Amino acid sequence: MLSIYTLLLYIHIISAIVSIGPLFVMLVIVKRMRTASQQEMSPYITVFQGAITLVKHAGHILVTSGILLMWYAGYAWYTSWVVLTVLVMLASIVFLARAFKPTLKTFGTAEYHQPTFVSLLQQKTWTYIILLLIMLWLMVAKPILWS
């Protein structure tokens, strides 16, 4: 029989995969944007925005299932790996809110310059991947840095 904890754990793992997987697809899209014509850019941007939306919503499920897992397993909120995960998560939320939208809004404006635009998207995508990988490590390794 499947326990509630096991079900929550599977939901948490799947949402982690869905929240980080599209970022690697975004890197492929960014690579294609480097040499894309102006007409090809619009569909790439649409797919990029869709991937960001998917990552964001999967993150909501990830956070919710993570909180439920912590509560169910009885982890304390002051445990080092929990505190660090929350801090990195807050940083990633702020980063995600500010990273892509301002850059994507420049498309089709006088501020738009394709090489700069693509470089910014690539840099911001890698930064977000690194933040999520740090959180993933904290959740899996559960390092005890203080008592």
From TrEMBL:
One Pfam entry name: DUF2269
Keyword Transmembrane: yes
Assigned keywords, A-Z: Membrane, Transmembrane, Transmembrane helix
Superkingdom of origin: Bacteria
InterPro entries, per database record: DUF2269_transmembrane
Transmembrane segments: 6-30, 51-72, 78-97, 126-146
Name of this chain's protein: DUF2269 family protein
Organism (species): Lysinibacillus piscis
